[in-house]
Structure to design on (227 residues):
């Protein structure tokens, strides 16, 4: 009973302080706090995802327009494979952290690699050369590592060399990287992805690389386009 009575003056004291804050003019309040549903911590702001306002696509020639739309079709087709590869890599690394013994880590890695190969192989056989090369670039975008390095880490240097040699027969380099700040086609791929994310056509997965799409757009819009 004593505890309950002691809480009464404390309630009125706190209520009085809160009322005084509410009665202050807006200019005298230094910070406004927001209570987010499901969160017990007051915040001064709510973090939001970046929202881009896309300009209307403009092309100088029909050839340029055709090139963009062909690239868009191919990029949207292969992006899910790159995203899946990144997801599997994260799952693998998370699992390996829990396995202490080297022999068991190696055995588990081999098992996952075989699963990934079986999961991808049939679908990847259906890709064209250009689709395969775009996929290699997107794998780098999603993981920050080339397909060559990923294979080397998961299997062996020889296996990675062999994969790269085989890919070269089809004019595909699995050492290819993704640089939208320096390569115009890579920027177009990034532009295609950002528009597809905004439209809900593709499920967004943040890139492992460090660049800003808005800054890239400003750069390429004020720069002479390569032929």
């Amino acid at each position: 009973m004593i505890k309950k009575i002691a809480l009464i003056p404390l309630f009125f004291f706190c209520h009085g302080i809160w009322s005084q804050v509410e009665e202050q003019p807006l200019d005298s309040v230094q910070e406004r706090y927001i209570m987010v549903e499901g969160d017990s911590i007051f915040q001064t702001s709510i973090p939001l995802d970046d929202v881009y306002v896309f300009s209307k696509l403009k092309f100088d020639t029909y050839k340029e327009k055709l090139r963009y739309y062909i690239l868009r079709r191919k990029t949207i087709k292969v992006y899910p494979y790159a995203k899946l590869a990144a997801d599997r890599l994260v799952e693998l690394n998370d699992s390996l952290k829990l396995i202490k013994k080297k022999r068991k880590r190696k055995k588990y890695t081999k098992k996952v690699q075989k699963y990934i190969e079986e999961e991808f192989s049939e679908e990847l056989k259906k890709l064209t050369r250009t689709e395969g090369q775009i996929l290699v670039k997107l794998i780098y975008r999603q993981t920050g590592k080339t397909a060559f390095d990923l294979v080397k880490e998961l299997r062996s240097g020889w296996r990675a060399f062999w994969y790269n040699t085989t890919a070269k027969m089809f004019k595909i380099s699995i050492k290819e990287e993704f640089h939208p700040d320096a390569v115009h086609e890579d920027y177009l791929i990034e532009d295609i992805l950002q528009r597809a994310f905004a439209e809900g056509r593709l499920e967004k997965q943040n890139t492992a690389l460090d660049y800003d799409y808005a800054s890239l757009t400003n750069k390429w819009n004020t720069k002479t386009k390569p032929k």
Notes: Residues 75 and 134 are 7 Å apart (CA to CA).
